[in-house]
Amino acid sequence: MFDSIIIGAGPAGISASLYLKRANKNVLVLYYGLSELEKAHQIDNYYGFEKGITGKDLYLAGINQAKNLEIPVKNEEVLNIVMNENFYYNVVTENETYEAKTIILATGNKRLKPNIPGIKEYDGKGISYCAICDGFFYRKKKVAVLGNSRYALEEAAELSNVTSDVYILTDGKELEGESSFTVIDKEIQAITGEDRVRAVLFTDGTSFSLDGLFVAEGIAGGANFAKKLGIYMEGDKIVADDGMATNVPGIYVCGNLAGGLLQVNKAVYEGAVAGLSAVKYINEKR
Amino acid sequence: MFDSIIIGAGPAGISASLYLKRANKNVLVLYYGLSELEKAHQIDNYYGFEKGITGKDLYLAGINQAKNLEIPVKNEEVLNIVMNENFYYNVVTENETYEAKTIILATGNKRLKPNIPGIKEYDGKGISYCAICDGFFYRKKKVAVLGNSRYALEEAAELSNVTSDVYILTDGKELEGESSFTVIDKEIQAITGEDRVRAVLFTDGTSFSLDGLFVAEGIAGGANFAKKLGIYMEGDKIVADDGMATNVPGIYVCGNLAGGLLQVNKAVYEGAVAGLSAVKYINEKR
After folding, report:
1. Is residue B61 part of a domain?
2. Domain boundary at B215, B243, B264, which?
3. Domain count, chain B
4. Is residue A207 domain-shared with residue A225, that is, in the same domain?
5. Are strands B89-93 and B97-105 parallel, antiparallel or unpaired?
6. Which of B33, B133, B217, B285 is the most buried (most CB within 10 A)?
7. What is the pLDDT of residue A243?
8. Do A45 and A143 lie in a common domain?
């Protein structure tokens, strides 16, 4: 049992971990994929670096900083976060399931929206980004998940609770992992329909009819977890109070996922605030 | 004419300067005396330093970071800040007077309160910390300034506008600079009085009667300037809005002087916010 699991190892997540560790809490940081920070070539406006620093160097320094303080930082994809019967949280990764009293979402805010004709038009009209949120509306219907990652498989598994007619469309990519679902690896040309989605057209001229398409490209982001956990959002930003607490007890957010200035210093400060709030919550719940 | 003058070269002040400079604004940083940061031996919880960093190293790195971006950072004592006839600000230092469109107060919040018996009891009852605020109540009365710095001389000069009976009490220290006022350099034992201050007792057994004592030990801090400028405060913290703007147009605050978490990351973030707000103000006023 961890006091806190932090999802994301950028400025916000690592900063939060430093404050939890300092308060002697048992904390785990999980991350996967590239950080938004790594793309920044040169950062001159983050205080403390005489000659500036590259985004990548800062990102790696942060992870090492946490590791030097004996904070475990693991490169492991998080597939799902669910509240368990003890009102704690199970964090399901590709490797195992961890339990924690608090969760800090610090994944950043990049979200892969596939650039396929029709995908925006049918958003909410047969196109969904969250199986657990919308799956219920597709009971006994024919649905597909768009994606080729473990996260896509997780979404397909979720959908299999409501219908046995589940497919995976990889859009020409190779599936990462093994699937018990029917996989179609043709390249997609467009999504079509009338009032609602009706079919996916492939570049080879064939088509595939369906009632619902669940987009799950790339890895699951904080916004995906937030929706599943019933966290209140405004657009793709998670809404938080002054202490970076979300509306769901024990779940905090920091950094770009919380909106506002997309700056390292803002992420770092919010990480500190979220970490301190989690410490307080853990101490009070004890 | 500067677009912005920042008082203080700690994390808050330097961070603000980086954002003004990036927006191509003409900015000057003035600092004097030791920073609160310099006292911190080892800082492990500021993001980005693998092995942590000492307060002094971080402080010096910040000043060099600004200088490397060609931001002038001058070690010069600020004695006074006044609004001028153009609704800009004159910043009076020991050497010269600078004019600026905006001011960012980032002095930190240390304040030297002398540990003299009676000084707390008579606070507001003949003991004052601001000549321009309270001098009016001592018209034609006998007053003294407690202090030996240039700031003390500045306070005495301010008082000379309302009364000709102005003394300087150095409490045994040597006066820094030259004074046209009568200087008493005896060591002080206590402040006495009845309802209000009546006299200062010296360790040699003698005493000095007076109506008011203006404390001006050490250097002037942000709180001193704030009071003179009519900036709204709560206790010794300056009140600011979300953009770190004070109630006085063009004056911003950031870091410990604004209260809240006394952490480097908070000061750095607020510096960024104050800097960006100042940029916006300068652009709109143009």
Report:
1. yes
2. B215
3. 2
4. no
5. antiparallel
6. B217
7. 97
8. no
Q: Is A25 inside any structural domain?
A: yes
Nearest CB to B50: which of A18, A44, A65?
A: A65
Is A116 inside any structural domain? no
A173-206 pLDDT per residue, tens: 999 888 899 999 999 999 999 999 999 999 999 9
- What is the percentage of chain A residues whose pLDDT exceeds 70? 99
Cα–Cα distance between B24 and B6 in angstroms, integer?
Answer: 15
Question: Is the domain of A18 the same as that of A84?
Answer: yes
Check residue B35 and give its pLDDT.
Answer: 77
In DSSP terms, B188 is beta-bridged to B202
B269:A268 CB<8 A? yes
Residue B22 and residue A44 in contact, taking contact as beta carbons nearer than 8 Å: yes
- For the record, the structure tokens of B9 come out as 């070269």
CATH number at residue B166: 3.50.50.60
Name the residue of chain A whose CA is nearest to B19's CA: A45
CA distance B182 to A285: 63
B91 and B164 fall within a common domain? no
Number of CB pairs < 8 Å for A and B?
A: 106
Q: Are residues A11 and A75 in the same domain?
A: yes
Q: How far is Cα B180 from Cα B20, in angstroms, rounded to an integer?
A: 41
Task: Indicate the residue of A46, A51, A61 with minimum beta-carbon distance to B68.
Answer: A51
Most A CBs within 10 Å, among B47, B68, B261, to test the A interface: B47
Which residue range(s) make up the domain with B87? 2-111+220-285
Task: Indicate the residue of B52, B264, B269 with minimum beta-carbon distance to A266.
Answer: B269
- Choose one of A215, A230, A254: the last residue of a domain: A215
Q: CB A61 to CB B50 under 8 A?
A: yes
A51 → chain B, closest CA residue? B65
Same domain, A42 and A60: yes
> Is B71 found in the same domain as B20?
yes
Whether B10 and B102 map to the same domain: the answer is yes
CA torsion sign for A58, A60, A62, A65 is negative
Helix A264-285 × helix B264-285 angle, to 10°: 140
Q: Please report where in the chains the tokens 């900015």 appear, as a residue.
A: B27
pLDDT in tens, B21-73: 989 999 999 998 777 788 778 899 999 999 999 999 999 999 999 999 999 99
Complex ipTM more than 0.90, yes or no: no
Instruction: Determine, yes or no, domain membership for B244.
Output: yes
Which residues have a Cβ under 8 Å from the Cβ of B12 and sit 6 or more positions away? Answer: B106, B108, B254, B255, B256, B257, B267, B268, B270, B271, B274
